[in-house]
Hints:
The protein has 644 residues and is α/β, with parallel strands linked by helices.
Amino acid sequence: MNENGKSSVLIVDDENTNLLFLTHILKSEYTVYVAKDGRNAIEAAEEQQPDIILLDIIMPGMDGYEVIAVLKKSEKTKNIPVIFITGLDKTDDEERGLALGAADYIIKPFSSAVVKLRIKNQIKILEQGKTEKALWQANAASKAKSNFLAKMSHEIRTPMNAIIGMTELALRENEPAAIKEHILTVKQAGVNLLSIVNDILDFSKIERGNVEIIQTDYSVSSLINDVVSIIRMRAIDSQIQFVVNVDSNMPDTLFGDETRIRQVLLNILNNAVKYTEKGYVSFAVYNEFAGDNSINLVIEVMDSGRGIKQEDIGKLFDDFTQFEVEKNKGKEGVGLGLAITNNIINAMGGIIKVQSEYGIGSTFTVKIPQKYNFFNKLASIENPNEIKVLLYEQRQMYTDSIAFSLGNLGVDFTVIENDSNLYEKMKMKAGNFLFISFFLYVKNEEIITKNKGHIKIIVLTEFGEAIPDANMNILAMPAYSVSIAGILNGTSSYLPYNDSNEATVSISLPDARVLIVDDIITNLKVAKGLLQPYNAQTVLCKSGMDAIKAMQSKDFDVIFMDHKMPDMDGIETVHRIREMGSGDSYYANVPIIALTASAIAGAKEMFLENGFNDFLPKPIDTIMLNMMLEKWIPKSKQKKHTAG
């Protein structure tokens, strides 16, 4: 079908009279192409890709039989229906044509009604075939997506179990605060990545748009801190400036689904960083008041990346959509992030808009209605009138961002233009805080050292930048209202890791015996480490067969069983355990918990149907682990946990 919406017909005949007649009767309904010999017919068919070909048999040079033989061998033309037009009426000639792939015959002299009917019939068959093919392709794509996500469930969650589990164990060690901060950042990144993976893997939610929204009170400043910590680690490896502008006057405690909003922020920001090779990514958060105890939470992400072509913007939120695949080769992702983001935003009653100029950059704006039960400002300065800040930063994006935050906090500030201006302002004691980039600090260290008695020096660093003096006051970029307020108020924005044992470990199990079965040594280490605070006796097995041998002792109170194992998987192992001892009640009733990375919809039900008692997805959540132990370990073996 052509751009004008008409089907197209190629007429091949060496007689001008026939060409004129057929063109005349068909041109009102079809786009008509003509060819007067076989060679031209083949070229026209490949170039024009008509929907139907009317092909004369008797022609000088190449006859119709030779032409159709060539057409049916070519990938470009083999599927185009060919109707022979001929004055021959011999049965063997008709059979020869059909054997070569002809779809139909029209016998000369032509009847205009017959010609039109034969063509319409072939186009109807063609359209029906296209519909059936499209339906088959859609079903195949749906099945492929399901299989793909099921496989990703195990393949992604298995390494995530090691990352989150081992960071949890490392955080429990007696390490310096700086090391714990880095480890905590790794864990936060892993937890947030897992949050995204969980939704990607639940294929039914993606397909049906059935996104569950769980609303609770949450801290906006804490949410933004988590998101910034993750994104700045992505940005540090690129040649971009990442700036954050957050309105300090908006309410800090909102009522909504923090997990879903975090997912929205990470998806949009990750995309911006991924497709921005130089320039900047700007992240802004503010609010629009919408009535009593209601706001629209507004999120704006701008970048100087590749931009999006106008014809592609309408397809931006389709499932598995990726644009300019060749140009973006090497960019990770499966084309689901923005589709999921759009579904989540819609489920929360919000909207997302996109403005983009190809080759210049894009702006994504999200508005999500939120409630708040009480109003507490996101950030504030205790004595703003007593603070005067000198700001010396030559990167304009950073200067503008910090200046916005200082003004938003109600703080008086002066932007330093050059080294001599810095010297002049410091001599005049024009400020009691100096915000200065590390490069400019090193360059002007002598001047600053001579005049620093009256001023507090805050060195602006790139995240992860090595600073030789551990006693420096450091503000890692991107600096924004919350982190700046913490510095100006004299309080640290750093939150040390609190050992989670007291929060999650509610019982001690010195008399309990726990069997852990997993073919991956790292997973065994993680599980054993997470059980250590319970003081339980743990036995580790690397295979289903080893587990069956260990079970002969009949002294385990609970078993954590991996699913995907070589030789004998977890389900087969459980079946074998349940059959041990000729109906022995111990083997029939011992609690067995599926410990698995296969966390797609329906997984828990599948395990329960196959002899498991419960289900604990990887990566192991310490709160859920505690609940499992409280539920399945005999009460007689549980003692109240005491810290220390």
